[in-house]
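Limitations

Structures in this collection are predictions, not experimental determinations, and the ligand pose is part of the prediction. Treat each record accordingly. The example that follows, with heme C as the small molecule, is included so readers can see exactly what is and is not provided: the inputs are given verbatim, and the output is the predicted complex.
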Amino acid sequence: MRLLPLALSFVLAACAAKAPPPKPGAEPHVGDEWFVWRADTLGITVDEARERDAKLPDGTDGTVPPDGTLDENTQMEAAILWSQECARCHGENGKPPPAAEGQVQPKAWGGMAAMGFLMGGDKMRAGVYKTIDRGKGTMAGWGDALSREQMWALVAHIESF
Ligand code: HEC
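Predicted complex:
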């Protein structure tokens, strides 16, 4: 019987190595929580997690993060963020529900909009990043609440529609 907990902990350790699928209603890591969680998942300190994030591009010169920045955990975070924070205005699948009377209608992603990424490449990605970070028209920016890594992951999430 003493072996059972041991065997179980191996199974759990094996699961922890892979990003678990997002659970319905899972909460995103907003503000400082992100850096604490990221430090934990990467085995680095919170300060190192902040430094790492600050080195990522900020969308100004059309460069995008190096390959491998958006690991499974980050991609899952983007999916959770999208569902919890963005979907009510932009639609779960990137097709926004009709805006309320007098409100600006966000544009639909996927379909023809995917051409933008195809034609614009990294310049397009950096532009979408800047919109998320700094806001646009009636949408306030998210830069104060989200890390650069989270916002780049959101760009990738939008591109996946
Ligand atoms: C309260 C509603 C609302 C929420 C929540 C919201 N947005 Fe927006 N968003 C808008 C509106 C409205 C526009 C169009 C603004 C304009 O053109 O004046 C917009 C525009 C955008 C654009 C530019 C493309 C477009 O549709 O015009 C991007 C990219 C974007 N939002 C991403 C996000 C992301 C990522 C989140 C979640 C972190 C988010 N938004 C949350 C309302 C929202």
